[in-house]
Amino acid sequence: MTTLEHRRARLDNERALVMKRIDQLHADAESADETREGSPFGKREEEATEAFELEKRIMLDANLKAALAEIDHAIARFKEGTYGKCESCGQDIEEERLEARPQATLCMRCKTQQPKSTGRA
Ligand SMILES: [Zn+2]
After folding, report:
1. Which end of the chain has fewer CB atoms at under 10 Å, N or C?
2. Looking at the predicted structure, is the pLDDT value of residue 115 above 90?
3. DSSP letters along 44-100, please?
4. Ligand 1 geometric centre to CA of 97 (Å)
5. CA of residue 19 to ligand 1 center, whole Å
6. How many domains does the chain have?
7. What is the pLDDT of residues 81-92, one digit of tens each?
8. d(CA 4, CA 81)
């Protein structure tokens, strides 16, 4: 297996993992809904906990979807034949960086120049 094939396999793995977590999250959400419907209680504390759980789920869902988009983007770049090139400066992305994060689309130098607030790639 070449390094590139190895990275591609890791991306596919990573993607399957994220998909599984999204499925799991949605399955949890459904069972939480069922519990709520079956319960005759409408206590304030329960509602607060539910609201908090819901908020957590929404955040996690958004994180997972962002991760999925990043992986899909990297896979699309494989198809284009531009995988491993920095999207900003066009240089090769460092091997160690791709090893640690196969979905990276920026080299270390461009990444550190990115505004910190984005937190992406
Ligand atoms: Zn760069």
Report:
1. N
2. no
3. HHHHHHHHHHHHHHHHHHHHHHHHHHHHHHHHHHHHHT-TTB-TTT-PBPPHHHHHH
4. 12
5. 29
6. 1
7. 999 999 999 999
8. 11
- Ligand 1 centre to CA of 91 (Å) is 6
- What is the average per-residue pLDDT within 65-87? 96
Phi-psi region of 81 (alpha: psi -120 to 50; beta: other; left: phi over 0): left
Evaluate whether 75 touches 15 at the Cβ level (below 8 Å). yes
Could you tell me the CATH number of the domain that includes residue 29?
1.20.120.910
* CA 27 to centroid of ligand 1, rounded, Å: 40
The pLDDT of residue 3 is above 60: yes
Domain with 103 in it? 3-118
Q: Which distant-in-sequence residues (6+ apart) come within 8 Å of 83 by Cβ? A: 4, 7, 8, 74, 77
pLDDT at 120: 53
